[in-house]
Amino acid sequence: MATLSLQHIDKIYDNNVQAVFDFNLEVKDGELIVLVGPSGCGKSTTLRMVAGLEDISNGKLLLDGKDITQAPAKDRDMAMVFQNYALYGHMTVYENMAFSLTMRNEDPNVIHKKVLAAAEILNLTTQLNKKPSQLSGGQRQRVAMGRSIVRTPKVFLFDEPLSNLDAKLRGSTRREILLLHKRLKATMLYVTHDQTEALTLADRIVCMSMGHVQQVGTPLELYDTP
Ligand code: ADP
Ligand code: ADP
Fold first, then answer.
1. Measured between alpha carbons, how far is 40 from 2 in angstroms, rounded to an integer?
2. Residue 41: CB within 6 Å of ligand 1?
3. Alpha-carbon distance 42 to 26, whole Å?
4. What's the sign of the alpha-carbon dihedral 118, 156, 141, 92?
5. Are the C-beta atoms of residues 202 and 219 closer than 8 Å to each other?
6. If DSSP codes are grouped into helix, strand and coil, which group holds residue 31?
7. Which of 34, 23, 67 lies closest to 187 in space, CA to CA?
8. How many angstroms is it from 36 CA to the middle of ligand 1?
9. Which residues form the ABC transporter domain (predicted)?
10. Rounded (5°) CA angle 44-45-50
11. Residue 86: CB within 6 Å of ligand 2?
């Protein structure tokens, strides 16, 4: 279960630039919210505040009703997906996916179960003993996702995950994210400047402009004008 409550959140950077004004949103359990808007409108700042990578200047952030406004990133039970595509070339797919758990000294049996479960979801079961260099681009992408999934975070955060990919990989990765959303029933916040991406992915879309939330609604509510 993972609900997020963003209450009257402002971000004022040290140089007095106010990037976000009075952001309010209730994210339901299992909901995929897409923040959309032009470059510089405050999407990424909002996401980074939720992740704990940027201080919240005013307002409150609750996760399942618990105030996490001041909580450090590592205590927030969230994963930023695709922030780092880099896989370890000398490790197998299995070792890459297990890495963050191994670092946390988790029980090898638990690690094994989690890696196999993630591999199944991501259709990587037959690739586990390969090295990243033996995989296709799409498979490498899925391994990168797998590294977040094994930690079973409550909330997944995506910052323009498709922007550096070619058209083919973009399509398949978008389908993977939707599949992941369905399979894990995970709460997700997804940032993009691309309206089409927002339309095809979102349960609800939050449109931002110059630091303000302009509109919130389902794709149908926002774009299906009679
Ligand atoms: P978006 O993700 O929608 O492109 P950002 O959240 O990155 O927008 O930026 C929102 C505004 O905040 C912009 O005016 C940007 O220049 C400013 N900004 C972003 N990061 C910083 C920072 N570290 N210091 C000062 N201003 C910043
Ligand atoms: P977590 O899943 O705990 O957020 P990552 O698995 O993404 O962490 O990475 C753990 C650490 O290893 C990070 O500091 C990251 O920058 C670093 N790292 C990840 N991949 C590589 C790589 N291919 N080469 C060097 N460092 C890497």
1. 28
2. yes
3. 18
4. negative
5. yes
6. coil
7. 34
8. 14
9. 4-226
10. 95
11. yes
For the four alpha carbons of 41, 43, 46 and 51, in that order, the dihedral sign comes to negative
**Ligand 2 pocket, residue 13 CB under 6 Å:** no
The ipTM, to two decimals, is 0.71
**Predicted model pTM:** 0.83
What amino acid occupies position 183? R
Q: How far is CA 153 from CA 10, 74, 75, 92, 184, in A?
A: 25, 11, 11, 23, 10
Determine the distance separating the centroid of ligand 1 and the alpha carbon of 45, expressed in angstroms: 6
C-alpha angle 66-70-76 in degrees, rounded to nearest 5:
60
Q: Which of 35, 45, 55, 57 to mutate to test the pocket of ligand 1 (most atoms within 8 A of CB)?
A: 45
Q: What are the phi and psi torsion angles at 12 (to 5°)?
A: -120, 115
For the range 119-128, what are the long-range contacts, defined as Cβ-Cβ under 8 Å and sequence gap of 24 or more? 119/93, 119/94, 119/146, 121/149, 121/179, 121/180, 121/183, 121/184, 122/146, 122/149, 122/176, 122/180, 124/93, 124/97, 127/93, 128/92, 128/93, 128/94, 128/97
pLDDT tens track for 112-159: 999 999 999 889 999 999 999 999 888 888 898 898 889 889 999 999
The residue length of the chain stands at 226
CA distance 201 to 207: 14
